[in-house]
Design goal:
single chain, 3 domains, seven-stranded mixed beta sheet, 16 helices, 20 strands
């Protein structure tokens, strides 16, 4: 029987261990910190457990729901209940995310015009998109470069940046279309016009591309009361406790295992592999990360007006604000709704923008609360407050990322075929993609 060592006790490592345990393989999992879960984590804000990491995961990617079913959590999955998916900020005003928007790409020009978000000139650029010549996708192209050519700067900066860029905490001019938005890249490959390509995709798969607005029979997102960290709690509870080791960071040559899964962020994986596979180590070190900082705040209901009817507000980079998003947890989720309290999460941090990291906690709270008051009236101090910083939170999929990942795995296969990798740094961020990487790693080490 193959014995596997797993380095890293975040979602990727725990999901790998669970898959191995289900197939009766033995393992030891080592986590260097004092808790499991990595960036999937919840903690108290007031008297409620609130996500400090991702509060949702995509329903259309099956691995998230599948793991919840295996852990007995499927009947507790819930979906956002906010009437409006999101608002976009511009010049102190809120504009509803236009219906028919796919990851920030507007496919319904009437809805885009009705939103009031885009100027007449910007609307004309979008309307002309189907008549433009093909865009050269090359080996890879950035999200910003592609959409600036297809739709113009205004829509790119006002809609696509806060959506695709916000998901990845990225600079869209340095973000790979192929790796960060593969469904859009597929539509671009199949159609000269991205608008026509996404309309065709919507017609065939409904809202499974993360579109805003009604019409989908199935939910777009899932969450869990008490936070997505309940997946971590369930994994830890079902795994053999004798095989889980906190505060442990062994070297590769001290593991005594037949196979190894490195489920750490790329910088740690690079250090571990420096002597074993210099090429893989060097390529891993080239994967950059962005950091984010969050302020979660609870207020008495009468202290905040208006009460938003949406899941949240997105703040485009072009506005120059530190604030990138305001999530209205108490509107977005039924399990956070209370008549006497509102619960918000203010998020900051983009790749290349370190202003939030340069502020101390008190200064960060003051800055983000001041900025959000361009659209909200807040008349009292918070009843509860949490500041959390995620250093090196999200890997940045720059153009060429997919080729770099293939080269990493090829080098590792040549130099150390008993070792493989899992995690968000490679073939997709988000909870389902991370689980998929874990299942792939488990399959690789047990065959």
């Amino acid at each position: 029987m193959t014995h596997v060592a797993i380095l890293g006790g975040g979602l990727a490592g725990l999901a790998t261990a669970f898959e191995l345990q289900r197939s009766d393989h033995t393992f030891d999992l080592y986590e260097a910190s004092d808790r499991f879960g990595g960036k999937v984590w919840s903690s108290l804000v007031g008297d409620r457990m609130v996500d400090a990491g991702a509060d949702t995961f995509l329903a259309r990617v099956p691995q998230g729901r599948a793991l919840c079913e295996q852990l007995g959590l499927a009947d507790q999955l819930t979906s956002p209940v906010a009437p409006v998916p999101a608002y976009i900020h511009r010049s102190g005003a809120l504009h509803e995310l236009p219906k028919g928007t796919v990851l920030g790409v507007p496919t319904d020009l009437d809805e885009l015009a009705a939103s009031g978000l885009i100027s007449a000139q910007g609307l004309a650029e979008v309307a002309a998109e189907p008549t433009r010549p093909p865009t050269d996708l090359g080996g890879d192209i950035s999200v910003g470069a592609y959409f600036r050519e297809r739709l113009g700067d205004e829509v790119t900066e006002r809609l696509i940046d806060p959506m695709i860029g916000g998901i990845n905490a990225s600079d869209i001019d340095r973000l790979s279309l192929r790796s960060a938005a593969p469904q859009i890249a597929a539509a671009a490959q199949g159609h000269v016009s991205i608008l026509e390509g996404l309309r065709a995709a919507r017609a065939s798969v409904g809202a499974t591309l993360g579109s805003a607005g009604p019409g989908a029979d199935e939910p777009v997102f899932y969450g869990l009361p008490g936070g997505t960290a309940r997946i971590i709690d369930a994994l830890v509870a079902v795994l053999d406790a004798r095989s889980l080791h906190l505060g442990a960071s062994p070297t590769l040559d001290g593991l005594g295992a037949d196979r190894v899964v490195i489920a750490t962020p790329a910088p740690a994986a690079s250090r571990l592999l420096a002597e074993v596979s210099p090429t893989a180590s060097r390529l891993l070190a080239e994967i950059q990360y962005s950091s984010v900082a969050q302020v979660s705040v609870e207020f008495e209901a009468q202290a905040v007006t208006p009460h938003l009817d949406a899941s949240g507000i997105l703040f485009p980079r072009v506005d120059g604000m530190v604030l990138t998003a305001c999530t209205w947890f108490s509107t977005k989720w039924a399990h956070y709704q209370r008549a006497d309290r509102v619960l918000l999460r203010l998020t900051s941090g983009r790749f290349g923008d370190t202003r939030a990291l340069d502020l101390g906690d008190e200064a960060l709270v003051n800055r983000l609360l001041t900025e959000v008051q361009c659209v909200l009236d807040i008349t009292a101090e918070p009843t509860a407050l949490r500041v959390h910083r995620w250093i090196d939170a999200l890997p940045q999929y720059v153009p060429g990322h997919a080729d770099r990942v293939e080269a990493i795995f090829a080098a590792l296969g040549a130099d150390a075929p008993h070792i493989t990798l899992a995690g968000a740094a490679y073939r997709g961020i988000g909870i389902p993609a991370t689980i998929a990487s874990a299942w792939t790693a488990a399959q690789a080490v047990r065959t």
